[in-house]
Structures are given as structure tokens and as C-alpha cells.
Design goal:
5-stranded mixed sheet; two-stranded parallel sheet; 2 domains
Length: 500
């Protein structure tokens, strides 16, 4: 008898370990947490970021994840470092559970399910989407994706027999709704995917789904025209789009041919493998709907690209290229079936496939962690106690209103943003501030203007630094470059200078 709970319990720790190794270790405060952590910290302490609050809120107002996480932190008393580690492990654990449940339905052997689990630890980028299948830190979209995967498992399971509970009353719908609160766009793609699958698979539910879709469309129109998202159907003008020029994932019309081939190539692969499953008589009752729902996502992507050609702001802000993450997930599920079970179920063959994929993940994870990024710890629960970390600890002792100037690419150099590690206002952080600008034109113009005003950070002179301080109210400069300004703090190569 197959026992998914036993398989999940035995595979969870290896899954967490391999996913983390393939992501070059777990890190607190890394990458996109430059968006989310300041928003949460601001909810916990509204005196923080008196200058940057407008920038932070321009994205944070689109979700409730900052309010929820801040509320959990306030209620439990957990430090943010511990809470984010728990959320990271929770998201991975939920993804593993979804994989086990899907494997229990799709495959005939536990070995194939084990192969799927191992395959999902092989972190990779979804080409030209700005998204990786895994991250080495807590990201709300990873949690929303895990919830969506669990919703997919619930949808497939409840269609296995007529007596099973309907997913839109129990299981899938609540999971997707929770995902919408955590990361709306990721959950939106699952909503479309599973909603289309339900429409195809369950004729008796079509009137309800049509009514629900109509109600959702009316709510969306109100929200976009009169509600909190008003103005997002307006064109994104040339100046605004120019600030986002470096974000290739926002502009599919500019993709190279290989990106189109790879992303659209998921469709024929999925269709071919589904046809083989149906011919073998192993396709699930609702599997056809799931496949058609995935194709509907591609139709949504094409529609969004056409709207981008008309420069509609919302079509860029939805980041439709991330739809291919869902297709990658379905293609991975099918590819494991093809390797392990297509043409006949043999325990030995499935076991060999599981062992090979597991070994591949171990080797690749070891290479990524110990060869490509040998200086990173396997687990970094907080801000590291290095030169940058000590400078940021000192920054947190300065006036909460202090305004800082740093290399606009400092987060890439040191691993954490000054807004996260120092918890202070920052003149500009080019990569992240530019990305936030997609949601708000004034923020985009603010970022563009500051990048131009700063110029080449490496060539910054005392005269130019003081002029920027006078113009923008800057208090401190943090740099590795020696410069003729009053030194306020130093640690190793990191120097903090007073600007006024």
C-alpha cells in the first residue's frame, strides 16, 4: 500500500537540504527581500523610512503579506530572522507535500514520486521571466506557488471519484484565495489555470464558474477604473518604460528567438506526454482540464503581450512571462512520468530514475554551493558579522531620520540592502528601486532622476558628495573608497563618512 504521509515525512529533510544547496544556501535579507522586509519593518515601526515610505508602499499596498507577517511577528514575538527562516521552510515543505500528493495521483510507484521531489530541488530560471523555481531566501511568491501547487493536487484528487469533495468548496479555492493575499500575480495564474480546468472537467459547475468569473471581472473593472488600482489601464509612456529598459522579463516583444522557443516549447511537450498518458489509460479524470487550463495560460500571456504593444501599464505590471513557471511545473511532472513509467510500470526502472535524479541534485547542489559560491554559508539566519554587517549595525544606532548614500549596486556586492540591514532611508538602490518603479510612475521618475544625479559612484568626489547631500538631505556616505570627508565609522574595508 502506498503511504504518501510516510513518503513525505521521510523525504522532507532531504528535500529541504537539496533545495537549499541548489539555491546556494539560505540567506536572510537577500535579493527581493529588499522589497518585502522594509515593508514589514515599516508596519512594525512607522517611524522608519520617513523618506522612502512612498517608494516602499507603492508595491506593499498591492498585497497584505507585509501586514500579515508584521502581525505574526508582533503576536509571537519572534525576531524577523527566525520568522523568515520558518516561512522559508514552510514554503518548501508545502511544495514538497503538494508534489507528494500529485505524485500519489499521477504515478504508480513511490519511486516516481521521489524522482519528482528530487527534480523540484533542481533550481533553475524560467527563461526571461525574472523568476527562479526556487530561491535561497523566503519570497512570498514561493509560498503562493506552493499554495497553488497544493490547490492543483486538491483539484486532481477530488476529481478521482464521483464521491470526492468538490475542490471549489473544499481545498483548491481557499488555497488560491490565500495565495492571492500573499502574492496576487502568482496566485492569479493558478486561479486561471485551475478555473479553466474546472470549466472543462466539470460541466455541472460551468454556470457557477461563469457567474463567478463575471463577478470577478466586474470587481476587477471597478478596482482598475474607480478602485485602489485605478489608472493601471492607462498607457505606460515612453519615459516610464525607459526606466524599466533593463528588466527584460517585462518586455517579451524584445525577447530573442531562443526565449520564445523554450517557453512556448512547454506546450507541445505537455500535449505529447498527456496524449501518451491517455493512450496508456492512466490519465486522471480531470487531467485533460489541467492541460487545457495550462494552454489557457499561454493564451493569457499572448493577450498580455498584445496589450503591451498598446503600452497598457497593467500588462507590464502583471509580469505575464511568469505564467511559464506553471507550465514548467506541469512539464516536470510529466517528464518524470515519461522517464519512470511511460511504456510500462517497473519498480526497478522507477527506482533507478529516482536515484539518478537524486544524485544529479546532490552533485549540482554541491557544485553550486561549494564551487560557484564557496564563501557563502549553507545557512545565514541573520545579517552576517562581517565588515558590511558591522557598518549596518552602526547605521541602526544613528537617527531614524538619517539619509544614506551608497553604491547603487551595494546589495549585489554585500548580500543585503542598506534598507534591510541598516533600516535607514537610502538615496537609491538601482536594481530594486527600478523594479518597484513599474508599479508607480512617480517612483520610477524619482529613481531615474537619482541615478542620473549620482552618476558614476566610483568617481564620486567630496565636492560632488556634499552637493548631493545639500540637494537631497543626505547624512552619511558608505563606501570602500577613501574620500576626503569626516570619517564616522569604519570596519575593515567599509568606511562611513559624514556628509553634513
Amino acid at each position: 500500500m502506498r503511504r504518501p504521509y510516510v513518503l513525505f515525512a521521510s523525504a522532507l529533510i532531504p528535500f529541504l537540504a537539496l533545495a537549499t544547496l541548489n539555491s546556494a544556501g539560505y540567506r536572510y535579507g537577500a535579493s527581493d527581500q529588499a522589497f518585502y522586509l522594509p515593508a514589514i519593518l515599516y508596519k512594525l515601526d512607522p517611524t522608519l523610512y520617513p523618506r522612502d515610505a512612498t517608494l516602499i508602499v507603492s508595491q506593499a499596498k498591492l498585497t497584505v503579506v507585509d501586514e500579515v507577517v508584521a502581525g505574526v511577528a508582533r503576536t509571537t514575538g519572534l525576531p524577523m530572522t527566525a520568522l523568515f527562516a520558518v516561512l522559508y521552510a514552510t514554503a518548501l515543505g508545502m511544495l514538497a507535500w503538494a508534489a507528494v500528493r500529485i505524485g500519489d495521483l499521477i504515478y504508480r510507484t513511490d519511486w516516481a514520486t521521489g524522482a519528482l521531489l528530487a527534480a523540484l530541488t533542481l533550481r533553475h530560471a524560467i527563461i526571461k521571466s525574472g523568476t527562479n523555481t526556487l530561491e535561497g531566501y523566503f519570497h512570498p511568491r514561493q509560498l503562493a506557488f506552493a499554495l497553488g501547487a497544493m490547490a492543483l493536487a486538491s483539484f486532481l484528487r477530488s476529481g478521482r471519484s464521483p464521491a470526492a469533495p468538490e475542490p471549489w468548496r473544499r481545498g483548491a479555492a481557499p488555497l488560491i484565495l490565500l495565495g492571492l493575499m500573499i502574492h496576487p500575480t502568482t496566485a492569479l495564474w493558478f486561479l486561471i489555470w485551475i478555473g479553466a480546468a474546472a470549466f472543462v472537467s466539470e460541466p455541472k459547475w460551468r454556470p457557477v464558474l461563469v457567474l463567478g468569473g463575471a463577478a470577478g471581472a466586474i470587481a476587477a473593472v471597478w478596482t482598475l477604473i474607480w478602485g485602489p488600482l485605478q489608472g493601471r489601464l492607462s498607457p505606460m509612456d515612453d519615459a516610464w518604460r525607459a526606466t524599466l529598459a533593463g528588466k527584460e522579463y517585462l518586455f517579451p516583444l524584445g525577447w530573442p528567438l531562443i526565449a520564445w522557443i523554450v517557453n512556448l516549447g512547454y506546450v507541445p511537450l505537455i500535449l505529447w506526454l498527456f496524449s501518451r498518458r491517455r493512450a496508456a489509460g492512466v490519465a486522471l479524470p480531470r487531467e485533460k482540464g489541467v492541460v487545457i487550463g495550462a494552454i489557457c495560460l499561454v493564451a493569457v500571456f499572448v493577450t498580455a503581450v498584445l496589450l503591451q504593444a498598446m503600452h497598457v501599464a497593467l500588462a507590464f505590471q502583471l509580469q505575464p512571462a511568469r505564467i511559464f513557471w506553471m507550465l514548467d511545473f506541469l512539464a516536470t511532472i510529466y517528464a518524470v512520468w515519461a522517464l519512470a513509467e511511460m511504456g510500462g510500470v517497473r519498480e526497478r526502472r522507477a527506482a533507478i530514475v529516482a536515484a539518478v535524479v537524486f544524485a544529479l541534485s546532490c552533485v549540482r547542489g554541491g557544485y553550486v554551493r561549494f564551487v560557484r559560491f564557496p564563501d557563502r554559508p549553507v545557512v545565514q539566519f541573520g545579517i552576517p558579522d562581517d565588515d558590511w554587517g558591522r557598518a549596518m549595525a552602526w547605521a541602526r544606532t544613528t537617527a531614524v531620520s538619517s539619509h544614506w548614500l551608497a553604491d547603487p549596486y551595494h546589495a549585489a556586492h554585500y548580500g543585503t540592502s542598506l534598507r534591510v540591514a541598516g533600516q535607514r532611508d537610502l538615496f537609491v538602490e538601482e536594481i530594486k528601486d527600478t523594479a518597484i518603479g513599474m508599479y508607480d510612475r512617480p517612483v520610477a521618475m524619482r529613481t531615474s532622476e537619482r541615478i542620473a544625479a549620482l552618476g558614476d559612484f566610483a568617481a564620486l568626489t567630496p565636492t560632488r558628495a556634499r552637493a548631493l547631500a545639500d540637494q537631497y538631505g543626505l547624512d552619511y556616505l558608505v563606501t570602500e573608497q577613501p574620500i576626503d570627508l569626516p570619517l564616522a565609522f569604519s570596519s575593515g574595508a567599509i568606511r562611513v563618512y559624514r556628509l553634513r
